[in-house]
Amino acid sequence: MRTLINDRGEFLSQVAPAQAILDFVDAHENSPTVRWYFLECWADFVADTYDVVFRSYVTPEFKDHRLEISAYFGGGEWQIRREHRTPSA
Are 14 and 5 in contact (CB under 8 A)? Predict the structure, then answer.
């Protein structure tokens, strides 16, 4: 069963790879022209999988952009990857 988490504090306290996900976004997705903020996380605590959505801060180039990250535990470590980075409709 998937659980919706839309509070950053709950995300940080309840999702095991939360900090690793934020570090991934900082290292791979942020740039001088775009910064991302946490919007929501769909967590499956039984399967240990997480789908996290970020929105861009409003700038002329990146207004209403969306970033989707997935994370799961495999091979003895957290596997984190970008699923989508698109303008949202």
Answer: yes
- Domain map (residue ranges) of the chain: 3-87
d(CA 45, CA 37): 23
Is residue 66 very low, low, confident or very high in pLDDT (cuts 50, 70, 90)? confident
How far is Cα 39 from Cα 76, in angstroms, rounded to an integer? 28
Q: 40 with 12: CB under 8 angstroms?
A: no
Global confidence as pTM: 0.87
Residues paired with 37 in a beta bridge: 55
Coil vs helix vs strand at 5? strand
User: What is the spatial distance between Cα 34 and Cα 84, in angstroms, rounded to a whole number?
Assistant: 15
Distance CA 29, CA 9 (A): 21
